[in-house]
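Dear Dr. H.,

I hope your travels went smoothly. While you were away I took the liberty of generating a structure for the chain from your last submission, since the lab meeting agenda had it listed for discussion. I wanted you to have the full record in hand beforehand rather than looking at slides cold. The sequence, exactly as received, is reproduced here:
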Amino acid sequence: MSEVKTKKSVALSGVIAGSTALSTVGQSGNDLHYRGYDIKDLAENCEFEEVAYLILYGELPNVRELAQYKKTLVERRDLPDEVKTILEHLPKNSHPMDVVRTAVSALGSFREEDSDHSLESAREVANRLIACAPGALLYWYHFARSGKRISLSTESNSVAEHFLTLLHQQAPRASWIKAMQTSLILYAEHEFNASTFAARVIAGTGSDMYSAVTGAIGALRGPKHGGANEVALEIQERYKTADQAELDINERLARKEVVIGFGHPVYTVADPRNPIIKEIARALAEENGSVIHYEIAERIESVMWREKKMFANLDWYSAVAYQEMGIPTNFFTPIFIFSRITGWAGHIIEQRIDNKIIRPTAQYTGAENRTFIPIAERK
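The corresponding predicted structure, in token form, is as follows:
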């Protein structure tokens, strides 16, 4: 009988797989910088469009550049009628992640990237996707629920306000717009995570921007990468009081159960995004007149730190903030897409400039030196 190797599979955690000028993650255990700027400064002082411009063009825009960039995005919000027809034919029970993935792929057939894959054409596709991805999801959402074909035009010049307006079909509160702006900034870029690496692998083959972004969405669709904020909400909604949550979480920890929303594969001290989104979640809860959900989340956070020294990551309080804004739970991960398109596009552009195919080597664990047996002699 042939011998089969039993070496343990080797993950790529901690292995340097390429270079990027877009972000640094966890270099001191709890830091995040986009092109050298601290995430706290960007989240507290910028609109999402400023950060998208920074990632795609390399510098923060001035007033004139930001106004022109916003105009560029507004002009690209609508979808071809053919893509709308495709969205109308998707099942009503489709997962929103599948809807956005399908829309991006379909758009690639009707608004193709220039064949030369120039920097200008790459940015054009990136800007189109940033502008129209929220509308694609919400066009399907309203059509699937009521058969209504909504207009993808709004008075807003920001992605955050545009999304909330299309979702609720009315002007959102100023506090909600600010909260969504900040959330989009916090999720915009995160170095070589699974979906970004998938996008770079596809880009390295010479493929187009739409294919690379579609592949990235596919990677984000997996529950080990995206979806943590959805699971976080499910956990938080188990409980009616903070005391009940503390008691149950302690029991679950005693059974060695995993609590989603805590710890991170790169950050070792804390997630620098957590205190930012936590404050937003608290403010939204107070504004809505009920802090029970926030208090439950905060109590679980304190238990996890006390018992396991595990810190809450961005997803934990994003779940609270999104619920306070009336966002459907299965929209949580698509919002991740709307933001991360910027980071994916930046990495796709970098990979094209690098002009190398990503082709790692595998550790073989199968049988060796097997004797070939003709088919007639096989038992």
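Two observations you may find useful: Residues 1-6 have pLDDT under 50 and may be disordered. The first strand starts at residue 23 and ends at 25.

With kind regards,
E. W.
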